[in-house]
Amino acid sequence: MRLIVENRFALLGLVAIALAALFGVAFATRSMGADAGAAAPAFEQVPVESALRVCPAPVGGDRESELSTYTPVGGTGGGTLSAGPDIEGAPPMGETGEAGRPWTQDVTDVERPTVVRAEGAMAAGLEAVQTTVGEDDPYVAQVRCIEPGVSTWFAAPGENGLEKLRVHVANVDGTAATVNVDVYTPDGPLVGEETRGVPVDAHGEAVIDLTGLVDGVDTAVVHVRTNVGRVAAALFAENTETGADWVAPTQAPAERLAIPGVPGGGGGRQLIVAATGEEAVTADVRVYTTEGELDHEGFTGLSIPPGASMPLSLQDALGRQEATIVVEADGPVVAGVATARSGGRDTAYAAAADPLEGTVDGRGILPAAPDGVSTRLLLGAPEGAATVVVTAVAEDGERGERQTVQVEAGHTTTADLETPDGAHVLMVEVAEDSGPVYAARVLSDGSGDKRVTATLPVLPAPAEVLLPPVQDTLTGVVP
């Protein structure tokens, strides 16, 4: 036995034999006890028990910023929710939130990213949004507080008065991260020293200025990715002193993308599409308005070069209508919509998003917007008729009556809702027999020529997740 132990090759052989025997016994035992004709094990539905969201530090002067969160009542109660600066050991700001009641916090003077942490029942269905409004002149911007990740995509505007385009990244983990930024323009990919190997310390942040890199280009698709670690990434586009907003993250490259929440009104609206692979892509664009699908010859057979983006003006076809845009391509693409109103003084950005559908992903949350800002809920049903149930939740947690909204197949509908006075939450749920719904919230401030808007997709906020079964795999035997 001593000789075997001292011989590392013999020892390795013994380990391999033992593992093979263990795996064989497990397989044989399962085979003898299982019915060959039995149905495959089903996914297990379990509650979400932990959530982490990161909000970028507010940008600009002459404004007020507010962080709003909401968690619907679920589970057995309990749990915690708190928000604080991304500084290790820093105390939380404000009081801890509670499930079923809107929670808001003034973050006007915050200079670091804010980290929202939830545990237990407070994590199930959590949504968090940061909204900024002007103190003197009309101005509104909103950004969804996101989970840290290794890859985030944005579809951004180009020249049209663009003054600054900056990527804000935050690393909330205890180890350093390294970030690369890829930029796809009509002339192909752009690379600069400032976009490669950007170090972000543990609990640190970085701002990557893309302004000089995209100077003179019509459109830019931006991909923020990490080589090491993970970060929460946000993109801020500034056209003029009032024409600035966060660009919502859009979906990763796919052959079919749906973009909800394209606001109506005058001004330009531009679709941004990029083929990020090594092959050219042909795409068709379908536009669904309150009147149904538009028929426009310029929306089919779009040829997108490999590794490049391209703009497509929607204004002539859309007029002043609100819309949901669907892009279908023969290869993976990234897409978004940039809008400009009042001669470029106001901008807003719509992004591709997952639909609300099914029992797990059938609910979205719109946290409270600041007082004085109006909210419109845009619902698109490009794939079939849909039924949506909306419930308003007042500041004290009292729920209003459930309001049903019908959306015709191939249409976009603005929900006509009764809402309480003051700040309130909207819970958006699809009915069991409903088709998928692509939803977005459009915030507005001011009126007439001074009216400004911001749009944000309503993403699924699951209170439960599906865990797949594991069987007949080596990982089921060896950790």
Structural class: mainly beta
What would you call the quaternary organization?
single chain
Overall strand count: 34
Number of helices: 3
Number of domains: 2
Which residues form runs of ≥5 with pLDDT under 50?
A: 1-11, 25-34
% residues in beta strands: over 45%
Largest β sheet strand count, sense and barrel closure: 8 strands, antiparallel
Radius of gyration: 25 Å
Mean pLDDT: 86
Helix content: under 10%
What is the general shape? globular
Alpha carbon gap, first and last residue: 27 Å
Protein name: Secreted protein
Region (Disordered): 59-90
InterPro entries: DUF5719
Organism: Nocardiopsis mwathae
Task: Write a brief caption for the model.
The chain is 7% helix and 46% strand. With 479 residues, the protein is mostly beta strands.
